[in-house]
């Protein structure tokens, strides 16, 4: 669909190997419980769903399946990721955009803003949401991917507090569901979940490669909080 380009800050965009790994990992179904929760929350929404930091558009396309009256807009600073997103669903448009700049979206036009593991610009979330619109945030909980140790970034124990600080001026939380699911990861899933994050840059180091192999077949925990917020003035 549409692909619009804007100024890109250096060093923030996911690279081609990271995007490939993310797309492969998400397609494997390893995070299906998270997809299901996001689809449940957004199901039945009509109007515009903006996915802030949509990456390859995996979650937005799943959510659009559950909301047949909705159209999606994927925003991300990675053109490589958005090329995938633009093809992910027929009701999905995509704009390469820095989330810290004013978004290419009118005031009060979005029914839902989705943010899954991505930067949070609370003022823009608020501006683009219609009165009564909902902000849906997915953020890792302590214990997320814990079995992989320092192969992945550890979760900040004060993440919840930071979420409240980042959003609390503009939004009130109306619900939160914790998605916690433990299952064995295949070697490919272990590789991809590491390669899709910042630690992926060091995968060629011998010590890391052998630790990745050792993690094959190990149970790994998905632990993500999905919270729903409404504008304070709505
Ligand atoms: C952890 S990934 C999550 C992607 C997607 N939501 C998912 O869960 O598959 C974070 C995403 O935010 C994007 N990103 C990081 N900084 C950004 C910025 N300033 N503006 C727009 N996108 C940004 C990255 O390119 C990446 O796609």
TrEMBL record:
One GO BP: methylation
Entry superkingdom: Bacteria
UniProt-annotated binding residues for S-adenosyl-L-methionine: 31, 144
Entry keyword set: Methyltransferase, S-adenosyl-L-methionine, Transferase
Membrane-spanning ranges: none
One Gene Ontology term of the molecular function aspect: methyltransferase activity
Name recorded for this polypeptide: 23S rRNA m(1)G-748 methyltransferase
Lineage of the species this protein comes from: Bacteria, Bacillati, Actinomycetota, Actinomycetes, Pseudonocardiales
């Amino acid at each position: 669909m549409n692909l619009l380009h804007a100024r890109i800050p250096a060093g923030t965009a996911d690279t081609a190997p990271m995007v490939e790994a993310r797309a492969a990992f998400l397609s494997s179904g390893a995070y299906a419980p998270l997809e299901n929760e996001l689809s449940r929350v957004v199901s039945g929404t009509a109007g515009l769903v903006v996915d802030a930091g949509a990456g390859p558009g995996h979650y937005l396309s799943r959510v659009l399946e559950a909301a047949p009256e909705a159209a999606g807009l994927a925003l991300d600073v990675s053109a490589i990721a958005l090329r995938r997103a633009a093809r992910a669903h027929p009701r999905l448009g995509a704009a390469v955009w820095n989330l810290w700049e004013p978004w290419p979206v009118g005031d009060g036009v979005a029914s839902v803003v989705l943010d899954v593991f991505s930067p949070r610009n609370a003022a823009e979330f608020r501006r683009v949401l219609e009165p009564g619109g909902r902000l849906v945030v997915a953020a890792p909980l302590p214990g997320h991917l814990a079995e992989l140790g320092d192969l992945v970034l550890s979760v900040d124990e004060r993440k919840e507090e930071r979420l409240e600080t980042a959003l609390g001026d503009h939004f009130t939380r109306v619900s939160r569901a914790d998605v916690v699911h433990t299952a064995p990861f295949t070697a490919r899933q272990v590789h991809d979940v590491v390669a899709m994050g910042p630690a992926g840059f060091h995968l060629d180091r011998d010590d890391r490669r052998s630790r990745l192999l050792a993690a094959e077949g190990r149970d790994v925990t998905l632990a993500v909080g999905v919270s729903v917020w409404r504008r304070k003035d709505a």
